[in-house]
Amino acid sequence: MERKHHRPIDYLHNSINKVILIKVKRNRLFRGVLGGFDEHLNLYLEGTSQIFEYQDEDGNIREEHENLGSIVVRGDNVIFVNLANQE
Amino acid sequence: MERKHHRPIDYLHNSINKVILIKVKRNRLFRGVLGGFDEHLNLYLEGTSQIFEYQDEDGNIREEHENLGSIVVRGDNVIFVNLANQE
Amino acid sequence: MERKHHRPIDYLHNSINKVILIKVKRNRLFRGVLGGFDEHLNLYLEGTSQIFEYQDEDGNIREEHENLGSIVVRGDNVIFVNLANQE
Amino acid sequence: MERKHHRPIDYLHNSINKVILIKVKRNRLFRGVLGGFDEHLNLYLEGTSQIFEYQDEDGNIREEHENLGSIVVRGDNVIFVNLANQE
Amino acid sequence: MERKHHRPIDYLHNSINKVILIKVKRNRLFRGVLGGFDEHLNLYLEGTSQIFEYQDEDGNIREEHENLGSIVVRGDNVIFVNLANQE
Amino acid sequence: MERKHHRPIDYLHNSINKVILIKVKRNRLFRGVLGGFDEHLNLYLEGTSQIFEYQDEDGNIREEHENLGSIVVRGDNVIFVNLANQE
Amino acid sequence: MERKHHRPIDYLHNSINKVILIKVKRNRLFRGVLGGFDEHLNLYLEGTSQIFEYQDEDGNIREEHENLGSIVVRGDNVIFVNLANQE
Question: pTM here?
Fold first, then answer.
């Protein structure tokens, strides 16, 4: 199963125009369509929602969304980017 | 739906002279007219208000504003910039 | 309303020799006359006072000042600079 | 037992396409197949699970996993990388 | 009142061989004679005392000093430098 | 007792293939054989154990070890490296 | 009392092979013989002891020492270096 070794940032190319998840410091989570990125992991997202997780009264974990539209995330806040599934 | 891939910072150009929201570390939120920016995400905003969110006695989330006029935000404080709607 | 796009730092030139407010990390606020700055947002201020806000016994927000004279603020502490009004 | 002195980053080459563990700031632990890395220790992982450790009611330490698929971790979050065993 | 615009760091030249105050992160305050500095705001101080402020039993703010002699302060710890009065 | 002045990083050369201790931010301590390092103090360690110190019921300080095998530590987490004794 | 203006780091040269004190972030204090340094304030110390200060039952401040031998301190942890007395 030979495969060429790419730089991590290069793998974001396959997620352009696809939905990705961004885990950011201070417990923030964003879901949006990746419109652009650079080598600092600055990210441009469209149709972004910020996701808040909480437990409801029955102890189930639920999500609440805040719609943000188009955002530019400063790269130094990013912990990891969860790439779109490659089908 | 082909589209050229831009750097995230480039998307701020379309918001020049428009109202944007800036989410900053330490829970600060600014709304102002984007007058300028650079590659560090330093931002120049005019007609800026700093927004404080709180719950009133009935549990409703309310905003209070402090008018700041023109400010220069140092880029390393920025978490994300919420761009103006592109109509 | 055409306008040339400047870098944020450039807007500080108009505040030279004028009173500005500096919001700094760890809840510090300085007011002084801007004497100089550089691209890191290092700032030289004259006639500086550090401002402490507190609530008095009647719940009013009041300010106390400490006069510091001339100071050099290291730029990486700055959150934002509130520019002088341009009249 | 002579041995040439390599840069630490070079030792990641032997773990390409192998399972590694990544210990990240803010108590995160990832396990995944190393697909790529760069000199900042940015990492591309496939088949990643985030591992949460907790004590059950009998005091045993147990793991829970969240499957994340493919992720790009920003290098400045990494504390250390636990390399694949070299057999 | 025309005046040439200097870089903030340049204003430290006038305080060479004079007593300055250095406010440092983590609530430290140093007073010493400025013997040297560089563009990172690394500072060399002679006859330095570290100043601790506290309230005595009557509620008065008092200072205690620890004599440190000659120190080199790493610039990234500095919040601001309080320059010597220019007479 | 004349001696040439070396850069601190150069002193790690003598510890290559020897056991060193690494004190890392967030109270971590590693012991392992130094296999490589670079100018950022990124470190490659073999046969590494992470050491946890605790007090037992009699008040004695005891160590517990977790074997990690080969790890790459990102240099910006390092506080200090305790070099191997030079005999 | 004319004197040439040196860079702060240059003043460490006079402390080579002499005992210095290093105040480090997270309340650490090291005493050792300065064997080397660089422009990042990375430091090589020999015969180092880490000093812990505490109050005994009579309220006296006492020191406890842990002998560390030779260490390399990563410069970004340093708050200040207390130079050897120049006699």
Answer: 0.90
